[in-house]
Inverse folding.
């Protein structure tokens, strides 16, 4: 089985749409260097740039999306050897997403 975790709505539409979705779902913190909930320092990775995001989206569109379409079509035939495709939205806390992923696997 393949589990694909999907991000915010609009993630597959392009960098501008993804940025707009992320901004509306996750507004900037009140204090630029602190997490409002935990009080932890916010750290931006060195490779966390628009260019990196654009490359990741190209890889997703050229490598992951075609594989998902292939697997889903095969799964739809009912072939017992086909990979079982389940989509899990990866938006939420780690615990929430883990629960969704485990539920998807359990419902085989």
């Amino acid at each position: 089985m393949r589990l694909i975790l999907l991000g915010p709505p609009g993630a597959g539409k392009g960098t501008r749409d993804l940025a707009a979705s992320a901004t509306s779902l996750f507004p900037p913190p009140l204090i630029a260097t602190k997490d409002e909930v935990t009080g932890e320092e916010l750290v931006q990775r060195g490779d966390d740039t628009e260019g990196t995001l654009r490359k990741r989206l190209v890889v997703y569109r050229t490598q992951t999306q075609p594989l998902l379409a292939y697997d889903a079509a095969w799964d739809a035939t009912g072939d017992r050897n086909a990979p079982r495709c389940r989509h899990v939205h990866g938006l939420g806390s780690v615990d929430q997403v883990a629960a969704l992923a485990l539920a998807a696997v359990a419902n085989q």
Summary: The radius of gyration is 17 Å. The beta strands are 2-6, 85-89.
